[in-house]
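Table S5 (text form). Sequence records supplied for joint modeling of the two-component complex.
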Amino acid sequence: MTRAIEVENLTMTYGTLRAVDDVSLSVEQGEFVGILGPNGAGKTTTLETIEGLRRPDRGSVTVLGQPVWPRNAGLLPRIGVQLQASSFFERLTAREQMHTFAALYGVRTSVADDWLERVGLVDKADTRVEDLSGGQTQRLSIASALVHDPELVFLDEPTAALDPQARRNLWDLLSGLNDSGRTVVLTTHYMDEAEVLCDRVAIMDSGRILQFDSPSALIRRLDAPARITVAPGQLQLDEARRIDGVDEAAEGSDGVVLVTRQPTVVVSRLAETDQLDGVRVQTGTLEDVFLDLTGREYRA
Amino acid sequence: MTSPSAFTALSLAILKGFVRDKTSVFFAVIFPLMFLVLFGGLFSDQDQSKVELIQVGGVALVDGLPDDAREAFDETFEVERSDDLDAAIAEVRKGDADVALEQQGDQLVAHYTQTEQVKAAITQGALRAFVDGANVAQLSAESGQPPTFTLETERVEDESLTTIQFVTPGLLGWAVAMSAAFGAAATLQGWRQSKLLRRLQLAPVSTRTVVGARVTVTVAIALAQLAIFIGLGAAAFGLTLTGSWWMSIPLLVVGTLCFMALGLLAGAVTTTVEGAVNAANFVVLPMAFLSGSFFPLDATPGWLQAISNALPLKHLNEAMMDVMVRGEGPSSALVPMGILAAFALVVTLVAARLFRWETS
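The corresponding structure-token record, covering 660 residues in total, follows.
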């Protein structure tokens, strides 16, 4: 089976800035892949080059077995794109937008209406795009990228600038997108989003891909210790330090915090002594991986 | 239901976007129409108001006019009677009346000022005519012979065009130039900002289809402007078109392409929608002045007319006037159409060279 995406040694330069630096990446069909990175990491440039909007300065990009540059008209009906800005026709309603995009792809109008329903915008069908909320605009944008049922879809920061409710709401929609074997590539700078949605995550910084693996493998590889918090009054500090497997123990504001690389051993020991009430276990997250890889210093 | 073709769908989307944009509609249709109403309505009444005459005491000439002469006299003069000469002269001096008339024996004395030269001339001329008329009548009555020479005046329509005939083609040229340039500039910038251009680049439609849809809508708007201008001009201000007025349709089509090209150039060299529209305005408004959209260029100095010959709108305006109101034949529009087409081609090539997909 041909790969959905095959990028080899891609380099993109703007003046003296290497926006993308020798990136190689391959995505299998049916995968849900996330590209994660801080602002300016090169995510959008990488994505737009894979979509065929930019000519690679060096390296090659193949999508669904075909080269994307120069503009490959045979490929266009097979891919769907949602660009970073909300790319709509001015002053058209949600339904009119969908019907126009449907016509551009030669798709029946009823399919466009089905997508409006699927993204929950039937109530807003007659609302002009300028009057939609941020979440509604993003959902319409995703629907317009999918109206022709593409095999491969690119979503560039679909949840940027949304409030937490709207973001969760959008996750439900996004998580079903690759059910039918469709390949999805999304960029984001939200770790939780990538962890929930993606099969594999590429962590990008300064134009390079630092790691590309499943979220759980990335976390495992980080080998971050777990933090177990025991509610106040259940465990003395010196007693805590004597438990097997505890590397460190400290008194925190909401109880004693134990740091361990063997959380299973420590938790079963707490269970034996009946000290489990109000215990909270935190293992490593993708965010820890991300910060570990990209550093913690603030970048303006 | 099957979808319409990509071309139809895009044209509809662009047209709806225009019609729903109140500002665009205002500047394309209402704003130029305001000028049409202003020029056509206010300046069309070229008849002079009557001369206000104060008759001091009895003036035999005026009082003794035969009926037909009396009628002509009343058409020129608004007569007020007074017995106080000084007060009447004071009124003339203040400008409240135009002339004070008194009779001293056989002499008719008119007191007037030169402040309003036109009225002064009319006053002088008209009074002299009536005096002469009275003398002739008296002489012929004494000799029993009819006067040898009589004057018949007959009004002929002026060779120069009346106001509405002159302003309609020029204002229409300006209106079309403005909406074509603004439309192209704002669409290019707006679509680039929202990345809709990129989005369309990734849809299976050709550039030809996208550009064709935008051009079709702009041309349709220009023809609607033509219909509205001619309709209102004819219905309200007595605009009469001459034989080959229909040549204004192909003229407007080529003109639209020319000004769309200017709008594309404005959109290509600017980075915001506001900037693009302002740049288009900066080009079109002075050009409208220099191309005779608002006033005739005949009286302007030669260097100004030389500049105006380099402006495409001048050629559009002149050609529109030739075919719409001057009664020139259809072939008179061919050279201007060639000039406009060449202009469109050159400017489009420049705009294409300067075009960038991204604003940054």
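Note: Residues 155-160 of chain B have pLDDT under 50 and may be disordered.
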